[in-house]
Structures are given as C-alpha cells and as structure tokens.
Design brief:
single chain, OB fold (Dihydrolipoamide Acetyltransferase, E2P), globular
C-alpha cells in the first residue's frame, strides 16, 4: 500500500510538472509498453517471456505504465492527453508488441512524461 501511494504521488507530480511547461512539438517514439515497476525494480527485460503476464497484473494493481524507447533505453511515463481516457485501458492491448506512440514529451529533472495522443503496432 505504501508503494502504491508513492507511485501515485509520483504520477501526480509528473502530470502537474508537464502541464506547467510550455507547449511542445508532437513527436513519435518507437518501442514497447512496459510496467515501470517490474522493469525498474526487477530488471524485467523486454525479451522475458513472463513480461506480458506480469505487466498486465501490475497494471491492474495500479502501477504506472511507460514506454521503453527502442535504441535508447529511455523510459517515458505515459499520461493520456484526452480527459477521461485511461492509460491502462489504452496501453494494455499493446503489452509485448513493438509500438509507435505519438504525443508530446515533457521533461523535468530526471522524469520524462509522454502525453499520449495515438498508439499503434509498429512495422519498424
């Protein structure tokens, strides 16, 4: 419960920081959807066969989701650009797939937030 509160506090901080910055240019990133907690704390690598099931259960538990950028290894925390849209419902179908994501990147300190507008399967 303590970890969940800490994660939610971090997410709120990231979202508020993103909205306080000037508008950014829309960009496309390529990579995969990850469960940030499993990836960071358990070194859950993208090629781990259990990753999809663990990511799904972690997302249902309320842990933050992100996008691991291909080639750079950067992690972008994901927030939805549309009001009322759920990041979990939008991102969950893409666990275990190569994706492209279109949106705006906001940075503050060591945090990168990706305000998602569109997502799909990548052919790259």
């Amino acid at each position: 419960m303590h970890r969940l509160c800490a994660v939610l506090t971090l997410c709120l901080f990231v979202v508020s920081a993103a909205f306080s910055q000037s508008p950014k240019k829309e960009t496309t990133i390529y990579g995969e959807v990850i469960d940030v907690v499993s990836y960071v704390t358990n070194s859950m690598k993208p090629d781990n066969p259990d990753r999809k099931a663990l990511s799904e259960s972690s997302a249902k538990a309320g842990n933050p989701l992100g996008i691991l950028e291909r080639g750079t290894g950067k992690i972008y925390m994901v927030a939805m650009n549309q009001q009322g849209a759920s990041a979990v419902q939008t991102l969950a179908p893409y666990f275990g797939l190569k994706i492209f994501a279109v949106g705006r990147v906001y940075k503050k300190g060591g945090v990168q937030l990706f305000m998602l507008n569109d997502i799909g399967k990548s052919v790259k």
